Amino acid sequence: MLGTLLIIVGGGVVAILAIAVLVLLGVRARKRLAVDLLRRFSRLFNPLQMRTAGSRGATTSVVRHVGRTSGRALATPVDAIATEDGFLIALPYGTQSNWVRNVLASGSATIAKDGQVHPVVRPELVPLATVESRFPLSDQRSLRMFRVQHCLRLRRVDAADVVDAGAAVDTVDAA
């Protein structure tokens, strides 16, 4: 009886590992089915990640954005790397993720990182190869292994952005 149980459990573990390897190889080869499976799997853990994401000491940040069709306030856990003028976020699921499209469409978002909230603007898709050196070495290895090609660059709101926003409002009010 115990031997049969061990065989069943062992077979299940082997099957799960085989599926994981196939999905990871598929992601590496940029196969849409594999990327979608991994994305769906990671969504299972998003609520757990969101409990601490963005708080002091957390490794995960939060991008707060507005749905481009629903208009709803949304939040997505990400790994944001701080730069001198903003943030870089690697895009392992590609450039067509809804949150990426929302941020690009609105032109702004908010990033919560290490207990601080940062308004960001001017989102831009950039080739990862041009900014890869800004990521930690362990992240660089993972990004290369999964052949991540793009990242999202976001700039912190500065005085010029506030002035530009004010000018736009004044123009609308004057009309």
CATH superfamily: Electron Transport, Fmn-binding Protein, Chain A
Please, how many domains? 1
Q: On the 0-100 scale, what is the average pLDDT?
A: 80
Subunit arrangement of the protein: single chain
Alpha carbon gap, first and last residue: 82 Å
What is the CATH-assigned architecture?
Roll
Q: What is the general shape?
A: elongated
Low-confidence stretches: 162-175
What would you report as the Rg, rounded to the nearest angstrom?
Answer: 20 Å
Just give the CATH class: Mainly Beta
- CATH topology category name: Pnp Oxidase, Chain A
The largest sheet has its strands arranged as 2-1-5-6-7-4-3
Fraction in helix: 40-55%
The portion of residues forming beta strands comes to 25-35%
Number of strands: 7
Q: Which structural class best describes the helix and strand composition?
A: alpha+beta
Major sheet: size, sense and barrel closure?
A: 7 strands, antiparallel
Q: Give the H and E element order.
A: HHEEEEHEEHEH
Helical stretch tally: 5
